[in-house]
Amino acid sequence: MIKKAIFPVGGLGTRFLPATKALPKEMLPVVDKPLIQYAVEEAAAAGIEEFIFVTGRNKTAIEDHFDHSVELEAALIDKGKEAALQTVQMMMQSPGSVAYVRQQAPAGLGHAVWCARHLIGDEPVAVLLADDLVKGAPALKEMVEAYDSGNMVAVMEVPREETSSYGIVTPGASHGQVVEIEGLVEKPAIEDAPSNLAVIGRYIIEPAVFDILGQQRAGVGGEIQLTDALAAQIGKQPFTGLRFSGTRFDCGSKTGFQKANLAFALERDDMAPELRRWLRDELAQS
Ligand code: UTP
User: Fold this and answer.
1) Domain that holds residue 190
2) Assigned domain for 79 exists
3) What is the pTM of this model?
4) Which of 20, 21, 23, 25 to mutate to test the pocket of ligand 1 (most atoms within 8 A of CB)?
5) How far is the CA of 190 from the centre of ligand 1 (A)?
6) Residue 175 lies inside a defined structural domain of this protein
7) Scanning 24, 162, 180, 206, which has its CA 20 to 30 A from the CA of 18?
């Protein structure tokens, strides 16, 4: 039912400067794979067949990453590096299934999503933010399986004092992992947060959301917010949250990014033993 996904990658990534001056934040690697590739793999696992990237200036590395690198592949064949060759060829999607549109200025997540409107027909579409990395059960697959109609977001509980960094929902009735959403406010003051249930960067949105985004109304931070458009649909369309089962890492923050690197590395047989020993020694000394 949901065959297209939008990957907004037009942001400036200011929290990771100077690393992100010339390198897209979404290309930062967790262990040895860029954040954006984890997101694309999660989308593919959910049955997505068309991948739409909303890019900006300095983001061409993302296009190169998902294309053939003829010289590299030739060199790997030459050196007999079969496994490495498979790794770089595995990420290729079928010809014509990847599209890039450019967000000419980083006017907000809602604006980035709206920039993809001409590539979306009269159908619901998924949106994935690469800096929300989910380990374990793929969150979008759980959402697609639970999705019926209207708009859906991934939700998780966050500490009360962090509610001002998220879109926060007013939850209604729960049905298993699915919770009805009665209200949504972007980055509320902690004392105004209606709950501690936060929206994480996975969405399934109805085409009507693009019309609202097209009104170009700026919200928090002067940016066009996707959550504001979703909130405007409450009462007109069903709106649900999915409490996903995996573990989410906020790779848009430096500590979240380091935690993700450790968590993924500690699951790798080629890295875990040495890393565990080193961590034990370091922690003993601190
Ligand atoms: P963030 O809110 O993390 O912003 O965007 P950012 O610019 O990437 O990073 P900081 O806060 O300056 O460090 C969440 C996602 O939305 C995309 C980003 O690329 C990221 O994947 N985004 C954000 C856009 O595509 N366009 C925008 O105008 C804003």
Assistant:
1) 4-252
2) yes
3) 0.96
4) 25
5) 22
6) yes
7) 162
